[in-house]
Amino acid sequence: MSGQHASSQTAARVRRLEERLIDAGLTSDDELDGIIGRLLSGASPANGARVVARAWIDPAYRERLLADANAALEELGLSMSTGPQPQRFTVVPNTPDTHNVLVCTLCSCYPIALLGPSPSWYKSEAYRSRVVREPRAVLAEFGLELPAGTGIVVHDTSAESRHMVLPMRPAGTDGLAEDALAALVTREGLIGTAAV
Amino acid sequence: MAEPRFAVGDRVRALPVDPPHHTRVPRYARGQVGEVVEVQGAWPLADDRARGFGSPRVEAVYTVRFPAGALWGAAEEHWVQVELWESYLEGAT
């Protein structure tokens, strides 16, 4: 079965569900379009990369980001309040001792405003069931071989918080400007399946 | 809402529940003992919201850290952090 086929089946099921809700007077097409439009407009991993680059060059910003990430986002004109309800946001920093990686084993929770729509593998049963159980092997399959001495924390997003990984700043980037640093950061780095 | 029952550093057990409705206790954590590493504030209980209750219980949510060796076998040395509502938990020693 092709992915295209699966996704059109899903789209048809979602549409039937929307029609039931609209018929019941619980919502309208306009309301749904508005919510989705606000959620996705400007939702991109470039937002997360901007936050990371600022944290790399400004230690005081990094401190504020780790203490209260929702407030630190507002400083850069970003927000986790574009969805149907505001979400608590935390940033978890990688260090030489600890590597962080994100998952939602129950479904597919993800910080869409900061990272854009999630990659299909993030929603796959294989990733969701394996990364909590054998993260070192899963990360190696992504091409990330962690030193044996680096511990791993897997964050299962099971409630109303969303998280983003703060990668370590790569060596040899001392001379780079903030924009150039942001360009180094990948979506996978923000999930924790890549180093940066 | 009442004061959070647990604090950072407390050991807690995720109750070995299997309710007939939506819940947010991952199966792999049920019955397992972990440590509270963060108190996230209070949120409407997902189970009540999923059942369409007009006034869902509002409870503290905790980030609980479980040793992977207990969840999956001694060979695994990582940590798994799960976010759990207060009524999913009991005190443990």
TrEMBL record, chain A:
One Pfam family this sequence matches: NHase_alpha
Keywords associated with the record: Metal-binding
Tagged with keyword Repeat: no
Domain Nitrile hydratase alpha/Thiocyanate hydrolase gamma: 9-194
InterPro entries the UniProt entry points to: CN_Hdrase_a/SCN_Hdrase_g_sf, CN_Hdrtase_a/SCN_Hdrlase_g
The protein, known as: Nitrile hydratase subunit alpha
Species per Swiss-Prot/TrEMBL record: Pseudonocardia humida
